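Notebook, student rotation project (T.W.).
Task set for the rotation: take a protein with a known small-molecule partner, predict the structure of the complex, and write up what can be learned from the model alone. Partner molecule chosen: potassium ion. Sequence and SMILES entered below by T.W., checked by me.
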Amino acid sequence: NPIVLDLAYNCIEFPSLENRM
Amino acid sequence: HIERSKFKQSVEVERSYLEQAVKVADQVLLIVPGDEDAMRCKVVALIRVGDIDGALSTIQSSQKLPIDFSYFKAYCLYRQNKLDEALELLKNQESTSAATLLKSQILYRLGEIDTFVDIYEKLQNCKIDSLETNFVAGLISAGRASE
Ligand SMILES: [K+]
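Predicted structure of the complex:
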């Protein structure tokens, strides 16, 4: 079967820390 | 060769940044136990560095905190091929595009290719990078390559 990309991985993102700086 | 060594170098640089991020998060957590941003940074950095066990135990340690890690937990379970458990977690979540993508990947691994293709047909209008690649992969797997 063809490879399915792990697009869910791209949704693992760091929180925005702007309001903490 | 030069391209390959440049690539290897950038992977190593990223890895050291991520390991640094885990250390900083741990330092913050010593001062502010349970801090949500620090917990989130730690879990994301661990997942990105490929330490899925570490990410899961960090999530486990946050059980009593008011932090919703269900997407991250489902993703970790998916990486460990605990597909039914991962799917169960996603059932109780609102269907964000992240949750939908993860669900589709789990269903693909479970061999539910038609459902996978259905999901991608519905996602067509979303601006998600490489969506087309998975849609085509799904069509081929379903024996619908002519579409
Ligand atoms: K929690």
